[in-house]
Write a structure and sequence with these properties.
Number of helices of chain A: 4
Structural class of chain B: alpha/beta
CATH class of one domain in chain A: Alpha Beta
Distance between the termini of chain A: 112 Å
Order of helices and strands of chain A: HEEEEHEHEH
CATH architecture of one domain in chain A: 2-Layer Sandwich
CATH topology of one domain in chain A: Nucleotidyltransferase, domain 5
Largest sheet of chain B: 5 strands, mixed
Strand content of chain B: 15-25%
Distance between the termini of chain B: 82 Å
Largest sheet of chain A: 5 strands, mixed
Oligomer: heterodimer
Largest interface: A-B, 47 and 59 residues
Chain lengths: 143, 139
């Protein structure tokens, strides 16, 4: 009897490779967390050449907590957030390097400070200063 | 003349390159994703103006109660007292004076906590700060 044996080609089974790879992709996509990498830039003044600005020249924005919201007192007058830029634009037209000081009260929510800061950025204010409590103490009263 | 009917090729989908494509995608995602160093849950404040900040920046997270978490941008963030922030920040600044510091604070946190952190950063001669925000909805 003649037995004919057919020889099979040796091969690596790769058909499931794609499934494995896609499974890995899905796993990484599900477990990865989206991290926020965008925000407002702010430059702290250099200590050596910190330019002294007199209180009369700078616009002073005082932020106080009022219920769940905040009041913004611009140069002594309570101003709605949207009107701050209207008040600032004529001053900036005269002096583009006008200093604006944001001075949140210690109990004001951080959110309000960001709102004011954002508003100033919208208005293209170049010199925004957020003095810390210790700095204010060093300056004396800036109000 | 012996005309044989032409042999029909079997229909099939070429799946050999599928694995290559998939692994390419994996590598792409692995290279482009940044590892999150800080997982403190905070409700970020919103702003219209937002700029992209460097990815290897140090992170200072402040939660609603004022607890501060610090990460140098490589290690996972850990709880830290405000006073300890100064040596940590100063050490980073001694290696890279242009390092960005991200402030990831809860919008409802009282400002005095942020004030304290800013004061420590100022003393450490930090220059570049970014306050992380969410996109403000238009309208």
């Amino acid at each position: 009897m003649k037995l004919k044996k057919k020889k099979e080609d040796p091969e690596i089974p790769t058909s499931s490779m794609a499934d494995i790879a896609f499974l890995l992709i899905v796993f990484f996509m599900v477990t990865s967390v989206f991290s926020v990498t965008r925000g407002l830039e702010f430059q702290l003044p250099r200590q050596e050449n910190s330019t002294e600005q007199s209180a009369e020249e700078a616009v002073h924005i005082f932020i106080e907590k009022a219920g769940s919201n905040c009041t913004f007192t611009v140069d002594g007058e309570i101003t709605p957030l949207d009107d701050i830029n209207m008040y600032l634009q004529p001053k900036l037209a005269r002096n583009p390097n006008k200093f604006v000081i944001i001075d949140p009260s210690p109990t004001a929510p951080y959110r309000c400070m960001v709102d004011a800061f954002d508003e100033l950025k919208q208005g293209d204010v170049k010199n925004i200063s957020i003095p810390t409590t210790a700095e204010k103490a060093a300056w004396g009263s800036i109000m | 003349m012996n005309l044989k009917a032409p042999k029909r090729a079997e229909a099939y989908l070429p799946t050999a390159s599928m694995a290559d494509i998939a692994f390419l995608l994996i590598v792409f995602f692995m290279v482009t994703t940044t590892i999150t160093v800080d997982r403190t849950a905070v409700e970020l404040p919103t702003s219209l103006e937002r700029v992209e900040v460097p990815k290897d920046a140090a992170v200072i997270a402040i939660d609603e109660t004022g607890q501060v978490f610090f990460s140098n941008g490589e290690e996972d963030s850990r709880a830290i007292s405000t006073q300890d922030l100064l040596p940590s920040a100063a050490f980073i600044m001694s290696k890279n004076s242009l390092k960005y510091f991200l402030i990831k604070a809860d919008g409802a946190a009282e400002y005095r906590y942020i004030d304290q952190v800013m004061e420590q950063l100022r003393q450490a001669a930090v220059r570049n700060i970014a306050m992380l925000t969410q996109q403000e909805g238009v309208g």
